Amino acid sequence: MSTAVAQKRGLGAAIWDYLTTVDHKKIAHLYLYAGGLFFLIGGLEAMIIRIQLMKPDNNFISAGLYNEMITMHGTTMIFLAAMPLIFALMNAVVPLQIGARDVAFPFLNSLGFWLFLFGGLMLNVSWFTGGAPDAGWTNYAPLSTTSPGHGVDYYVMGLQISGAGTLIGGINFLVTIVNMRAPGMTYMRMPLFTWSVFVTSTLILFAFPALTVGLFLMMFDRMFGSAFFDVGLGGNAIIWEHLFWIFGHPEVYILILPLFGAFSDIFSTFSKKRLFGYSAMVFATVLIGFLGFMVWAHHMFTVGMGPIANSIFAVATMAIAVPTGIKIFNWLFTMWGGQIKMTAAMLWSVAFIPSFTIGGMTGVMLAAAAADYQYHDTYFVVGHFHYVIVGGVVFGIFAALHYWWPKMFGIKLNEKLGKLAFWPFFVGFHLTFFIQHFLGLMGMPRRYWVFLEGQGLETGNMISTVGAFFMAIGTLIFVYNVIYSAKKEKKADGDAWGTGRTLEWAIPSPPPHYNFVQTPLVRGLDPLWVEKMDGKEGMTPAEPLGDIHMPNASFLPFMMSLGTFIAGFGFIYQVDNKAWLIAVFAGMGILLGSMLVRSVKDDLGHHIHKEEIEEDIKKGVAK
Amino acid sequence: MRGWMGKFRSLLLFSALTLFLAGCGQENLSALKPEGYGAELLLDLMLISIAIMVFVFVIVMAIYFFVLVRYREKKGQEDFVPKQTEGNHTLEVIWTVIPIILLLVLAVPTVQATFDLADQSSQDEEGVLTVEVTGNQYWWHFNYEGQEIATSQELYIPVGERVYLDMKASDVIHSFWVPAIAGKMDTNPGENINTMYLEAYEEGVYWGHCAELCGPSHSLMDFRVVAVSPDKFEQWKEDMQNVDPEAEPETASAKEGQELFNNNCMSCHAIGGASAGVGPNLTNFGNRNKIAGILEPSKENLVDWIVHPDEIKPGNKMPANIVNKEEASKIADYLMGLKHTDVGTELDSVNKPKNDQ
Amino acid sequence: MSHEDVLNPTKLPHDPEKATLEGKNKFLAFWFFLGGETVLFASLFGTYLALNGSTQGENTPEHLFGLELVFIMTMLLLTSSLTSVYAMYHMKNHDFGKMQKWLGITVALGFAFLGFEIYEFYHYIHEYGFTFRSSAFGSAFYTLVGFHGGHVLFGLSWIVTLMIRNQKRGLNLYNAPKFYIASLYWHFIDVVWVFIFTVVYLMGKVG
């Protein structure tokens, strides 16, 4: 669907192409398809939750199934929807924005995707094999360690596998941004999206290993009889909470920062103005990332850490509001004095500001440690984090997809349908989640399968459910728009919006697989804008036209991920029957064997010859 | 353009309306209607934070709407190129410093309240009551330290006094929350004991929830705090200390029920001052506000519960069908007759609020 | 740079591991990776410190650990780190033969270390009945030290693979970065062991 070439060679060849591709643009497509699918699944789970809570004492689904539903909704949305959709954007945009031909490690890029996908599949297989995980997405011990069946085992193995993929992706983008920038692209000339991906990747690098360890300990406790969280043998259940949140809090910033970056680019493009306070924005991004590691225990105010620890984490958490506020004001002043063009992408971005501001403010309210004794684990928290994650991350993903869709697929999404999808989603979002703050304060804890009649919670829950349906309608219109646009919209220009400022808009939409015919020379912030203002057509090349070195496709990433997938099942079921150890050995064999092949077989990539490139330029697919 | 703005305004209006309505919430349950020291302190803290947040929000929104209206692209000016402003130092300093000041304004009462609520200075003083709270799947046990009183599901406390709670869990993590009186605190498994205190201002039956996911019946792990005057509380103590677990019931059916109970249920349950068994202590069962924490106290409900506890609270540990329906009915007669104290029965429960809305 | 220049360079530069973009990327990525590994081990150390008192009254650290054995293991691993430095020194001098020799010694020392570790675990299990499931301390001890042991095993397999793969063709710009980062990994393993020696064994024995 993405390239005419693939269609010509037939479906089988196209599938094989995607299975083996190491091209960051195709990997972006894969992340988008998989993440989009999981987003729909997670949304369906959310609808089931809201239907169950439509009225008091409802019996739409059973208590056990409800817990599976909330667990899978949270886990799916965070790990299998938001993360891959962000990775889709990172892959689609970052190499283009810094003027690179691919990421630093195309092979690892592919490996990261397949690990994520197999991890996600593993989690969702649990629905069909006796029950999904049911201890909440936070999976607190000892509820999780004592949860019957294999649900939690799937959680552990699924997240371990997909987490490894994310970690690999993080390192890849760090190196890409440090080493692969085009000449003249200094750090302080990088677009904000690239900057935020850089900070996010750092967070991934330092946060995910804590989750890795937590998951290992959980796995050992559940599958091999260790006693980390078993108080009967001297274990301590709180260790899980710490490890989980040392990962989990930075994870929140991992999710939101790239979208902050995307918003910055979008506001700037559609206001026809350079970003207001660029260096302050960069500084704020770095500071948010740094502070993100200092505040994990604010998820644990009621655990009993004592007033000193609670106060320290409370004040540290409040401090994050300062750089976030700086960002909000800088966005507003980017639009100030500009020429605001209200495209669908801009609409989502503009809607983000009040929504996220509310989310940020309830965040500060939650940071007040003592007051959190009332908010904690209630619908207030549910309201808060949905304002941040939907109002920030999901709005951001929609905005960014509208904005970069022409670069990813060569066509724009239909603007009218884009706006039509926005309104029900936006209204539904506020209907669903605003009221939840009050439900929480009125005494409704989160993760409640039923609420009782006569406690004053009926109206609020009903409104919330109605809102959820509006959001579902908005999402469906967006999906329809994707299909509609693929058929009806005509090919987009390289500078699809006409006011593009950054390097990705200097090349055709979609770009040829080597991106840049000649590596561009960057002469300032917003390099394309600089050239345009000088009256030039495009970028000045930094090198003569010549052969281009590109990486080779490989099937090994798929095989390695498949190996972990098989081994994962082995680990889960060897508890019941030791014969499953065969699967462990087989899976690990495939993994290690593939790694061995990768190690001993030289892979130097290939060259695209000058003649082919000249041919492409003639055809207009390269510039 | 007009329509877009109009919709947005009506949305804001709607939000304000919701805010107004929700100010109420259910008496004796809502954190917005504090009836105890902790809840009142925390509501004040919330109001300070809300005031600051609304202040900031109004400023942000004022700039926001001004910008969106004033700087929309106008017809015929598509080619206009705005001035490319780099930034503005004064402005940037302003929106860095003012938030810092606002946060400090919030941080001071936050730290104060945090230390205030963690204060345990009077716990060891004479006459100060400490209750050992144990969270179990899916019920609460209360053991009155040094009083030889044990009870489950309904915690009696004297009004106007600080009552300390030493809290732990027997299985998984739970969280003890009585929104109208105080904030919540987790109960952790093992020797990891947390302490908090309750101080109710007025007599009443306050609704409590478990606030940490603890299994399928997490949402059904409700309990109540019964606050009574100090005099009545002394009376209650005396009644509870003088419970005769073996006392003969009056009716024949109840007598049979007692025997059935002793043979089938006593291995887990207890009546009188015995501490937590596998199941809840059932002292004064006949006067409780709810059966199993959630059901209306009728015989029919009790029989259902005894025969099919798994259907009412999925995943709970009481086995189904230990006795048949007929036997359960007799046990119910016995249990409903267990009225060891009248204290608190005159109080309205949450579901029958004083001023019904 | 053509493939020929990478695989059969006429003259190796002084830093063959960083002569190509791929080499530079690997070098940087590996440092980042080690940063992540540091968080991984920090989490394991944190867990160990939280649980090392939870012995359930038997098989305490003082009771179990024998410093003689651990001292020998430490010496083996520290020495192996030094020999891998020699190997890298010879790589920079483009002396492939000597590099292989010193890597060989490194690997031998590594296997000796691993042998002692296996003996140590075997000893605890069979002499003391101290296992992974005995207590939270047991779980934490075997997990922390075992993770390190797993890293040693992986590092050894990696270096041996590289040595065999490149035995015939010698050093080039394609394999130099691989040798280099494998040796970085080996140093990291060594550093982690120094912390294990201090935190687990010395502190366990002293108090």
How is this structure best described in words?
The complex is a heterotrimer of chains A (623), B (357) and C (207). Chain A has 623 residues and is mostly helical. In chain A, 66% of the residues lie in helices and 2% in strands. Chain A is globular. Chain A starts with a helix and ends with a helix. With 357 residues, chain B is α+β, with helices and mostly antiparallel strands. In chain B, strand 6 and strand 7 form a beta hairpin. Helices cover 78% and strands 0% of the residues of chain C. Chain C contains 7 helices and no strands. In chain C, helix 2 packs parallel to helix 7 and helix 6 runs antiparallel to helix 7. At the A-C interface, helix 6, helix 7, helix 8 and helix 19 of A face helix 1, helix 2 and helix 6 of C. Chain B: GO terms for molecular function: copper ion binding; cytochrome-c oxidase activity; heme binding; oxidoreductase activity.
Describe the protein's topology:
The complex is a heterotrimer of chains A (623), B (357) and C (207).
Chain A: H1 4-8, H2 11-20, H3 24-52, H4 63-97, H5 106-125, H6 151-179, H7 192-224, H8 238-271, H9 278-291, H10 307-319, H11 321-335, H12 344-367, H13 369-375, H14 379-409, H15 415-441, H16 458-488, E1 520-521, H17 527-533, E2 540-541, E3 548-550, H18 556-573, H19 581-600, E4 606-608, H20 610-619
Antiparallel strand pairs in A: 1-2, 3-4
Helix pairs in contact in A: 3-4, 3-5, 3-16, 4-5, 4-6, 4-8, 4-14, 5-6, 5-18, 6-7, 6-18, 7-8, 7-9, 8-11, 8-12, 8-14, 9-11, 11-12, 12-14, 12-15, 14-15, 15-16, 18-19
Chain B: H1 2-22, H2 37-70, H3 89-117, E1 130-136, E2 139-144, E3 149-152, E4 154-158, E5 163-169, E6 174-177, E7 185-187, E8 194-198, E9 204-210, E10 223-228, H4 230-241, H5 252-264, H6 299-307, H7 309-312, H8 325-336
Helix pairs in contact in B: 2-3, 5-8, 6-8
Chain C: H1 3-7, H2 21-51, H3 61-64, H4 67-92, H5 96-128, H6 136-166, H7 176-206
Question: What's the CATH H-level superfamily name of chain C?
Answer: Cytochrome c oxidase, subunit III, four-helix bundle
Number of strands of chain C: 0
What's the mean pLDDT score of chain A?
A: 95
Count of helical regions of chain C: 7
Instruction: Work out the strand percent of chain A.
Output: under 5%
* Main β sheet profile of chain A: 2 strands, antiparallel
| End-to-end C-alpha gap of chain A | 22 Å
Number of helices of chain A: 20
